[in-house]
Amino acid sequence: MLKNYNRKILKSLKVRSKQAFLTIATMKLNIVFKSIVVFTLLSFSTLSIGTSTGPPSKEDFIDLKEIMPNLRSDLRYYGDNNFVGQPIQGYNSPKALLTKDAAYALKKVQDELERLGFGLLIYDAYRPQSATEHFVKWAEDESDTTMKLQFYPNIDKKDLFAKGYISVKSGHSRGSTVDLTIVSLKTKQILNMGSPYDLFDEVSSPTHTETITKNQHSLRMLLKRRMEKHGWKSNPKEWWHFTLENEPFPTTYFDFPVE
Ligand SMILES: [Zn+2]
User: Fold this and answer.
1) In what order do the strands lie in the sheet with 118-124?
2) pTM of the model
């Protein structure tokens, strides 16, 4: 009797220990499985942060001087030497910002010119949408003609919209448009292109030849060809204005201030 009882106890102990072993094994497996799930989730989330494109933002822009130390600038809308005669809204710092694609495409032009002893001078680059709105407000006030003689001597202020010199949206606000000219690195002289920056007049068309010298026209063509070679398209009205052909944000008008 006693022997039988002992055997039963031993048997039940064996069964219990087997169950305990199975329970521990299952728990361990669960932990391993959960760890794998957590690890996988973590690596996916890290991956998605690393390759995230996200909405376009100022993080997609770069200060041109960071990649072109010899670049010169005369950022007209930061100061008052412009057709409005006042610093323009949104230009809080004398910096030339462009999208990274545009900046590196411009660097190719700068590098090429530097090898010839020349360089670029930037008049305007990224322009916040609020600055364009400042221009529009100014253009609607026909009584303010302070800067007419210098910037639009042959055009009525009211015609600036119709003639396309001012518009409610500017390519500059998409971050891949730039206004520039060429300077000599040796003499620091700005090359004479036959008409000054932002002169709203037919003489500023890059193809205009009638009232400028052959040399001035050749310099416009030199700038145009160098820019086109590296993916920029020129503007039919302004020899200084270029837009990157494959601009990265063709439909986004940015409005963060330049600072
Ligand atoms: Zn422009």
Assistant:
1) 72-73, 118-124, 177-184, 241-244, 232-234
2) 0.79
What does the alpha-carbon distance between residue 139 and residue 81 come to, in Å, rounded to a whole number?
A: 17
Question: 35 with 78, same domain?
Answer: no
Distance between Cα 165 and ligand 1 center (Å): 9
C-alpha to C-alpha distance for 142 and 246, rounded to whole angstroms: 37
Q: In a 3-state reduction of DSSP, which class is residue 56? A: coil
Which residues fall inside 5 Å of ion ligand 1, going by CB? 179, 241
Mark whether 30 and 107 lie in a shared domain.
no
Residue range(s) defining the domain that contains residue 150:
58-244
Residue with the bigger pLDDT between 48 and 203: it is 203
**pLDDT greater than 60 at residue 27:** no
- Segment 72-127, tens digit of pLDDT: 999 999 999 999 999 999 999 999 999 999 999 999 999 999 999 999 999 999 99
Distance of CA 26 from the midpoint of ligand 1 (Å): 70
- Count CB neighbours of 218 within 10 A: 10
Give me the residue label for tokens 């680059």. Answer: 125
- The residues annotated as belonging to the active site are 238
